Amino acid sequence: MMSSTASVTVDGIEKRFGDHLAVRSTSFEVPAGAFATLVGPSGSGKTTILKVIAGFEEPTAGRILLAGRDVTRTPPHRRDIGFVFQQYALFPHLTVFDNIAYPLRMRRVPAAEMKSRVGEALDLVQLAGLDRRYPAQLSGGQQQRVALARAIVFRPPILLMDEPMSALDKRLRDEMQYEIRHLQRKLGITTIAVTHDQTEALVMSDMVVVLNKGAIEQIGDPHGVYKSPRSEFVATFIGESNVVRGVVVERDGRPWLEVDGRPRLPLPDKAAPAIGRPATYVVRPESIGVGRGGPAAVNVGGTVAEVTFVGDAQRIRVELGWGTPLVAKVASREGLPVPRAGEAVEVTWSHEDASAIF
């Protein structure tokens, strides 16, 4: 089964519910064949945007273009979009076959072709042989696969998914992330998903759109959004970050972050801040090494306040005596010494692993 594909353009979309502005003048484009994820906390506007793209909500302002065609006033059933709902919305009285075949029946596809297409879809989602079962006879993961098969069986150019894995346990959710990504690449179908799970967004996407309070905070590929956050919100929402706030000062001919009245951290070389301007310094816990010193671009002394075992890593909180404590995540390895609470240590990291937000 191969699907045609189309780009999706969100052009200046706004959405009001009474006096509440749920989405604020939002624009972005998802290229044909790409996988984009809208990620943000509850109330950030991500599901509203997805419903506007699908046609389930009408925007207060702005346009939706599919493959360059304005569909803003086009009803949902004429947009030719596959949609996977958060709770799957399977018909409990229909078999797996009939649930998947439903969009084809609505399009009056001949019986022989319908059987062939449903068979293809079942093979793609690894449910061959379960076509006569009912939804109640399936596991959560199998139900999700049925919902996905139903959304792609009519070969739509665009697939939308609203929190598609929220009802699954963590282990199954992790497995399905890779399965859906593999299927999307195989079909080449333009896909937009909504999630509040940051890891899910990073694992599955070509493009991540981070939303907060109805507006876009940052758009980019997963690596860029994670490694170079453009706001403190993105730095703390997408993964865990150490955040140190201060003011830019000059020391030895280069910019530093002043905290508690003294220059404490040299700002990254890629930063070009104005002296005297407030700034936020960001470094990820996994980028920080902990020990008794050594060659590194940044080297700061402190005292271990707490060590927590989290399975694959040791989470080490270090008090610096100024500002916010830093948290390091050091891989758990047999025989690797771990500092104890109260021990004096140096925390070290590379300039390239830090970001400065102004």
Q: Quote the distance from N terminus to C terminus.
A: 48 Å
How big is the Rg? 25 Å
Helical segment count: 8
Unreliable stretches = none
Classify the helix fraction into a percent range.
10-25%
Which class do the helix and strand fractions yield?
alpha+beta
How is the main sheet built?
Answer: 6 strands, mixed
Strand order of the largest sheet: 6-7-8-3-9-10
**Number of E-state strands:** 20
Structural features, described:
There is one protein chain. The chain is an alpha+beta fold. The chain has eight helices and 20 strands. The strands form four sheets. A six-stranded mixed sheet has the order 6-7-8-3-9-10, with helices on both faces. It has a five-stranded antiparallel sheet with strand order 13-12-11-14-20. A five-stranded antiparallel sheet has the order 15-19-16-17-18, with no helix packed on it. The radius of gyration is 25 Å and the shape is elongated.
